[in-house]
């Protein structure tokens, strides 16, 4: 039995979540279950573990014929029940393992850099699932997207014509093309964007140095476009970006973030360092430039995607004169058939590791600052309260994107 405290009831969240359920290695000796749970927004603390990684993570070290690949993937999280593999649900790792299986003709185990349910490494499959259900922590990262998530996988290339004959490892480019071929035969909402050969001891989770999350908010009374469905948080109210940026200055840095962790968070310490938290206004996407925009872009060479953050951007300024009409009272309106654009804001958070639901709770507070429901003094009060009950309602998962997991690959590349 563990000495850790049992998690209290989780804060309300309508999204379904994922459970880390990795295949158990047949070489693993039976042990008395020793539960160790740590998690962050979509994966755990990135420090190298004190205890050695167990059998299923070291198989490539015992079998020199295995090649370990580092694989970067992008996916739309809407139709996934989270990242980690679990029975009877479609997950990122499950779909990726299936594609690799079809490619190389044998099962593989994939280990993700971002794992919401971490630990339980010595608990059997049924016990892990039962405990997660009791804790209310199943499908924790359902609906979260990734511009670049990272995992590693060990592959032994065996000849299909001569069973048992081991061939030289596939080139990374071959792995990428082949796996994407099988992924696109699935739902087409996940893709491999990069593959590298790494050393047998490289671990996608423990070697990660930093991660960056983006959160998209679309502000304005206009109904959300179907192209943005499940891709952003629609806030009907106007947002004060300058107030939100001032609030970011309160939250950045080294703090006790107890007010910004879910009640079910099992991390040993609420202390985290936010290297960056910022709010930027950008052009709402999908964005198709007008004739005027194209002419300006060609003449100046400036990018149209990044907009200044010193003041509000009027969506009417983003359409060309031919798309505007003048109403009888002299005001500019949109021409018939032209969609009204929203203000689009991106909250960027960057740190070594995050607490469970930390980013979404931070965004919830920033949104309330933007609408005027909270002041900068309220943000300071919430941070100092050290209780999640003091925070604003959590932002939904649909606007959250894992943007990047950073590594130092200079000494870990396999030749």
TrEMBL record:
<dbReference type="InterPro" id="IPR001406">
    <property type="entry name" value="PsdUridine_synth_TruA"/>
</dbReference>
<keyword id="KW-0413">Isomerase</keyword>
<dbReference type="GO" id="GO:0031119">
    <property type="term" value="P:tRNA pseudouridine synthesis"/>
</dbReference>
<dbReference type="InterPro" id="IPR020094">
    <property type="entry name" value="TruA/RsuA/RluB/E/F_N"/>
</dbReference>
<dbReference type="InterPro" id="IPR020095">
    <property type="entry name" value="PsdUridine_synth_TruA_C"/>
</dbReference>
<dbReference type="InterPro" id="IPR020097">
    <property type="entry name" value="PsdUridine_synth_TruA_a/b_dom"/>
</dbReference>
<keyword id="KW-0819">tRNA processing</keyword>
<dbReference type="GO" id="GO:0003723">
    <property type="term" value="F:RNA binding"/>
</dbReference>
<dbReference type="Pfam" id="PF01416">
    <property type="entry name" value="PseudoU_synth_1"/>
</dbReference>
<feature type="compositionally biased region" description="Basic and acidic residues">
    <location>
        <begin position="14"/>
        <end position="25"/>
    </location>
</feature>
<feature type="region of interest" description="Disordered">
    <location>
        <begin position="1"/>
        <end position="55"/>
    </location>
</feature>
<dbReference type="InterPro" id="IPR020103">
    <property type="entry name" value="PsdUridine_synth_cat_dom_sf"/>
</dbReference>
<comment type="similarity">
    <text>Belongs to the tRNA pseudouridine synthase TruA family.</text>
</comment>
<feature type="domain" description="Pseudouridine synthase I TruA alpha/beta">
    <location>
        <begin position="247"/>
        <end position="408"/>
    </location>
</feature>
<protein>
    <recommendedName>
        <fullName>tRNA pseudouridine synthase</fullName>
        <ecNumber>5.4.99.12</ecNumber>
    </recommendedName>
</protein>
<dbReference type="GO" id="GO:0160147">
    <property type="term" value="F:tRNA pseudouridine(38-40) synthase activity"/>
</dbReference>
């Amino acid at each position: 039995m563990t000495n850790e405290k049992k998690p209290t009831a989780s804060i309300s969240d309508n999204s379904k979540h994922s459970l880390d359920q990795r295949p158990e290695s047949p070489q693993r000796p039976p042990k008395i279950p020793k539960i160790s749970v740590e998690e962050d927004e979509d994966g755990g603390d990135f420090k190298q573990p004190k205890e050695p990684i167990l059998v299923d993570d070291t198989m490539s070290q015992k079998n020199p014929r295995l090649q370990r690949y580092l694989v970067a993937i992008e996916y739309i999280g809407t139709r996934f029940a989270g990242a980690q593999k679990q029975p009877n649900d479609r997950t990122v790792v499950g779909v990726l393992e299936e594609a690799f299986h079809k490619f190389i003709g044998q099962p593989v185990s994939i280990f993700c850099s971002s794992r919401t349910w971490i630990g339980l490494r010595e608990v059997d499959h049924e016990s892990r699932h039962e405990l997660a259900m009791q804790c209310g922590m199943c499908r924790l990262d359902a609906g979260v997207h990734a511009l670049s998530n990272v995992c590693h996988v060990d592959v032994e290339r065996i000849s299909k014509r001569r069973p048992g004959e081991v061939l030289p490892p596939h080139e990374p480019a071959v792995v990428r093309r082949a796996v994407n071929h099988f992924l696109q035969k699935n739902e087409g909402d996940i893709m491999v964007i990069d593959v590298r050969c790494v050393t047998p001891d490289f671990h996608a989770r423990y070697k990660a140095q930093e991660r960056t999350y983006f959160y998209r908010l679309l502000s304005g009374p206009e109904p959300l476009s179907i192209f943005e469905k499940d891709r952003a948080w629609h806030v009907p109210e106007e947002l004060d970006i300058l107030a939100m940026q001032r609030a970011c200055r309160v939250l950045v840095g080294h703090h006790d973030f107890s007010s910004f962790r879910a009640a079910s968070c099992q991390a040993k310490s609420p202390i985290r360092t936010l290297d960056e938290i910022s709010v930027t206004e950008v052009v709402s996407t999908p964005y198709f430039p007008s004739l005027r925009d194209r002419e300006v872009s060609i003449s100046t060479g400036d990018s149209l995607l990044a907009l200044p953050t010193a003041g509000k951007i009027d969506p009417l300024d983003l359409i060309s004169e031919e798309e505007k009409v003048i109403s009888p009272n002299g005001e500019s309106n949109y021409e018939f058939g032209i969609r009204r654009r929203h203000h689009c804001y991106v909250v960027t958070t960057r740190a070594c590791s995050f607490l469970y639901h930390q980013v979404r709770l931070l965004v919830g507070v920033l949104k309330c600052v933007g609408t005027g429901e909270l002041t900068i003094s309220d943000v300071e009060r919430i941070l100092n309260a050290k209780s999640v009950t003091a925070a604003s309602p959590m932002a939904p998962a649909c606007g959250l994107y894992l943007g990047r997991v950073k590594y130092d690959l200079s000494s870990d590349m396999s030749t």
